[in-house]
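quick one, two chains, predict together pls
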Amino acid sequence: MGKRSAAGPVVRAQPDAELELLTGDLEGSSSDEEAQDAVPQRSPRAGGGVERETAPSSTSGSKDGASASGEDEEDSDAEASSADEAAADADADDAELDRALVDLMAAQAARRGGAEGGAASVEGAKEDGYAAGTRQAGQELPEPGAAEDSNSSEDERPDRNTVGDVPLEWYRAEEHIGYDVEGRPLARRPRPDRLEQLLARADSPGTALRTIYDAYNDEEVVLSKEEIRLIQRIRSGRFPHVEVNPYEPEVDWFTREPEIHSLHQGPEPKRRFMPSKWEEKKIVKLVRALRKGWIKADRGAPPEEPPAYLLWQDDGLVADKTANGLSYIPAPKPKLPGNDESYNPPREYLPTEEERLAAAAEAEEAGERAPLLATAHDSLRRVPAYAAFIQERFERCLDLYLCPRAKKKRAFLATPDSLLPQLPKPRDLQPFPSALAMRLLGHTAPVRSIAVDPSGQWLASGGDDGALRLWEVRTGRCLRTCLLGGKVVCVAWCPAAETRLLSAAVGKRVVLLPSGVGTEEQEASAAAALAGLPAAADGGAPGELCRWQARGEGEGAELLHGYAVARVSWHARGDYFASVAPTGNTQAVLVHQLSRRASQTPFRRNRGRVAAVAFHPVKPFFAVATRTHVRLYNLAKQALAKKLVASGGVTCLAVHPSGDHVIVGSEDKRLAWYDLDLSDKPYRALRYHARALRAVAVHRSYPLFASASDDGACHVFHGMVYKDLLSNPLIVPVKILRGHKVVDHEGVLDCAFHPTQPWIFTAGADAAICMFTNP
Amino acid sequence: MWEKKRGQAGNAVQYITRNQALKKLQLKLSEFRRLCILKGIHPREPRKKTQGQNKTYYHVKDINYLAHEPLLNKFREAYAYERKIRRARNKQNSALAERLAARRPVHRLDHLVRERYPSFVDALRDLDDPLSLVHLFATLPAEQRHGIPTKAVQTARRLALEWQAWVVRTSALRCAFVSVKGFYFQADVLGQPVTWLVPHALAQVLPTDVDYRVMLTFLDFYSTLLQFVNFKLYHTLGVRYPPVVDPRLEQAATGLAALMQDLARGAGAPIEGSTKAGNPGEGAQVAERASGAAAAEPNAAAAERLGTLEARLAQLHQEVAEADDAADGAVGAAASGEESGDEDAGGIDSGADASEGDDDMGEAGVSPTQRRGGVGAAPPSAGPDLSSGGALLLAPDPPTTVAGGAAAADPDDEAAVCGALFRGLVFFLGREVPRETLLLAIRAFGGTAGWAGEGSPIEESNEAITHQVVDRPTQGHRFLGREYVQPQWVFDSLNWRVLADTRLYAPGLAPPPHLSPFANPEDEAGEDAYVPEYAKALRRLQEAARAVRARTAGALQAGVFLDEADDGGARDASAAPAADAAAAAAERLYAAELAPAGLGKRKAGAAEEEDDEEAMAAVMMPRKARHLYASIQKRRGAKRARAAELERRATALAGPGAS
């Protein structure tokens, strides 16, 4: 009933008295007998209803008979008045059928509810069900064939309508409901009104319940009781036909048990008595294989070797080589468990909650398994299985065959102190400055430079406050203060004993001052050296290299340079001195002669920014330190004697009094000791300062040198140079002097040794000068 | 002139990468892996990685070594053979397939063991990993899903038991530690420490991200190795290998006990050390009880017992003498203010109950609590017993000391102490305690043990039981004559070679912390290491036990040579440490007096000086040494900080309780 169900048949209970009468009339004479034998026949037919299936006409008869079986008796003597009774009787029989019908209706209505076209038609039909009832009663009359058709199987009965699977409300407004096979429109039949419906229902309540309205074909269909039973059976999930039993007991005709008697009567074939050809072929194959030795005859299991035997006869011979001649590297053993791996560790081993979380977070971040933290269990029975046991064993296995092994040459260290170099104790290398003896306070700004006079009595200092101060070393008294009108970046004494002359670099000037602390002869010779210079001219930059000019009365002289001067360095004899103007390109280094009051530039080319210069103490050599190299020029030959490679950013330079060693400090926190006889590379490069080096100094008589750095420390070293050429200089750090504070990233700015005593002076950015003496 | 070309000498030709090796050997990676595992070939770290940084390098000699391995061809043959079987199967030729499958070529790994471990000591040195893996697989289920064959598991189990049996028999066990991971054991095998880890006897969940084939390959080699090692060990002992397992005990899943029986029976010539003189009787007795059905065995056991009886008598004489001396030692120890007086009852002589059976149980079963009570009061109670021969076998108890059954052992002879620590103690293991590990520990230290369950040589109601090991919150019925302890007592006692105070380990109590015997503060940087409070207590106990042993040993020796030296020797043994202690105490006092008296400032200055000196010395160090030095210092610092932190926590934890 594909199409019809799609169109949504409307099932309606209908009092269809005429229809009932009609069927009664149609069956007429035979109705009694039919009814008679239909009732008793029902039960045997239920067993095997093949006949009924094959004969639709008899089915229809029996259906009607069954439906009307109760009524027909009444019909014979009574009419509509007794219809109620009849209905009451029939209800007893048909109650369940009716219930089934109502169920069916409700189910179908619910099922159709969602469908697009059907829904509207169903609802429409429901609405006007009673209104349409009377009209239909009239329609039903003239077509007995249709009633017969409706009794036949649905597959056999063609549809009247041919519109196909379209929503029926498309035809709602039309006069016709569709088209027949010839294409003529099928007129819509008038529907019975409610009164007719009521009457019909009252006439034959049994049939009315079984009547359904087929909206597709616009006709009423009365279902037979058999059909309803069929539907009921289908709905309850049983096989539709009563006679068919789908679960027949199985008779297995073909069992797997061999029968003793053959099922057929034929004679045994001949091949049963003949040697098999295929077997023969196989045997031939095997024989050939055996002969040729391809397969071996099975002589039982091979002799069982003993599972274990005495493998090692020797004892104690340990080989450190593997069989392939390589050294045997045993896998490192896993660490043995400590207290924190115990199932019941001491309570102090238990991590706090934060530690636990931190460890877990760390492991998660690293994508590793959470580490095993100490956990306490109060008894052994509470210890669970270790979840990562197999995983850990597996990882150990992986380590064993995947990890590259290397033999670590691990020096045996009894104590880590054995790594420390074997140096003489500092206390055996005394004297050296170790104790802070004096702090000279007076400057108001960082002290840039200090210098001790050759006699060791006086200390000159210059700082950013523009003052040059002269201190008495013994008492710490500030003897003189000269304001030089600019930041004093360098002070230096003239080493000549007969001339107690003081020099200072201030801006573009090099100022030469009579110190005023010497003897009368010294003062006189100093005054003579500076006398007779032209007065200071007002012109700005000098035309020549540098202009010698006098300062005020008794205030010495000054050399006006073209560029800012950073350093002044005297030759040991006190006649020559050099000034360094780092920005001066080819005029960066000027060498001045005091006696002739002449200046000259020794270098024609600029070889880098000059940081410091120094005269050789005895030989006519001149050392120039650029940022990357230290060049040693032979002044007599006017040639480059040696070029030392520095590490970078040279800031200061000092020449050992022997003249064979140069000490260089640089910005990369490194102090380099060059042995000029050895190489152009440092003999020792030491990196111990935390910041750039500012100054290095070498003691003139004691084997001491020192370095000052911006980290606020001054390191004093014992630097012994031996006379014999075979032994290298001995360098031993002896003292770290921390007398200054770090101000604006500047610490100790300069250091200078006392010429005769093992004392050192340091100038700091904290505007103080410290004097350290030996205790 | 001949010019040296790149890549023709040195590391470039000595090392090849793994892929190159695979190509050279014409192997798949899995085959190569298997071969490497079996042959013990591992990548090496070349000085220069010529082929790239992120590659694995093998030495050419290693790869050549693999190329000449007979196993390589065996594997190839096996592969071809498998293909034959597969082919037969696919051709529905099941007969052929069956025949082929039954005759699969086998390979053995004996030669690999010999190659990799030319001497026995080599094998012993590498025994940690094999034992751990074998013990793991002994507990694993034979899972089809992960391809773990049943046979491998069975073999692992057998080998593990054989090893344990040997350890028990020779008393080679030195330490046992209950970790959250499992039980760590350390044995001393021919002077080599061998450590292995046994998982807790709970069902292991097999993780899926583990390649079990790798582990099975390792297991393959390891079980071969262990088999030969076991053979050699049993051979040295003069016992047949493989030992025969008692089927009845095996059925009862008693494991070690089933195996031990064969060992104890001494299939070969029994090799007995002097310390083991008392043991065969016990073994025989256990055997007798366990398999009384066998007709021949009681006779053999009886004969053995008869044979050893005389030796036994002589030994007992000696032990009585020892006991006497040891009693003096104990009294001395108690008098010296140590806790030894409180300590648990020591051992009952093992020989007595073991060789005598039940007839003397009534007398031997005097409640240990009574005995304990009479410790200090009547040490020479053994005196009158000496006179009567019958009473001799009652085995007068040695004094209750912390030294346990090893009171007479030479304190410097670790093996003797370990082998006799639990001698004379009879343990009964509840069904909730890990039986196998405890059996191993107890019997290796000379004790006797029974357990709740089938196959136990001793019933729970036996009067001879001195210690019942239980692990339950409350103990219902208690027998009077025995101590009830938690399993940790056994492990703590054997680790420290003393009998710890049983009251601390009573069931239901939270036991004292379980300390690792491997965390040796002496090994680490001296005073830096942190020593927990309980370790200090145990160490004091240990010292007491040591003193007892030293005195006993001294007395014995003196008794042999010179009678009157007895006192002197004993006094020396005890006096020397006492003098040391006094000196140390005086020094400490002096230091404490000096400390607040204004040394602080100078000390601070001195410390700074020292720091400066250190910094200056570091100036002159080469860079490498400087880094090394710095790292060492850093590590020491971290260790010191950890110790300090632990110390701080310990005081914080102890603080509220103390105040």
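The domain at 426-773 of chain A is CATH 2.130.10.10 (Methylamine Dehydrogenase; Chain H).
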